[in-house]
Write a structure and sequence with these properties.
0% strand; single chain; 275 residues; 10 helices; mainly alpha
Length: 275
Amino acid sequence: MDMWGDLKEGKRKVKFKMYFNNIHIIIYLIVGLIGCIVGQVLGLINKRLENHERILEKGSLKKFKKEFKAHYGLMTIMFILYIVLLYVCKMDLELWYANIKNLSYFLLLPLLISAFVIDWRKQIIPNRLVLTIFEIGLLVTFFEGVSSPTGMSLALNRLEGMVVGAIIFGMITLLGGLIAGKEAMGMGDVKLMGALGLFFGMKNIIMISILSFLIGAIASIFLLVFKIKKTDEYIPFGPFIVISAIACIMLPEDVLFTSLWFVFSGEWFIKYIRK
């Protein structure tokens, strides 16, 4: 009798586990679907930002309907990013509402993709876009500061990240202008790094800076070697910042730090010589 009871209990547990696995799959699909919708809306918003038009104004809904076009690329990117973010953050689905930092990334990702697309196409990062990132960053800093026991130190770290991010890129822009006689990068990049500092804090914004220059160097060589860009053609830096920021969101901090240390310490070169 006990054996049959244990067997039935075991079956119940298996069914219960399968039920929750199915629930999780449905949640992932819902989040992915939201990503698709965000990607489609992003395509419409990007066009208006590129043309320096207001996103919402009188008759904007009619314009959106008239200009409607499926943006499959952006829909696919946002679908993948949202699902990966949900998995990477390992958000407690029961406590998702309390996880302010991870939730803020769902707002930040589409804005980063928008900055990537517009900067690549038009070599500009719209002020409205950077201001939106800055405003969300301030709200996240405030709410984390209020809700966390170490709120004050968290808020200070975020504000330091904002200042450090803007200073690093501001100095590079200034020095580039003095040495090369032309802008090394645009002010949009400086403002974007300052706004991102509110999300990532001082340590991570320095990591994003280093990673963006590394990715930028590799990508620039690739673009020039394969003649996608000419030597006298401007290569926007915003996309490299965006890729680095997304990497910082998706990858564990210790993995990023170890990878950067491996590259810049020359360990890979020593290992190559020893072979």
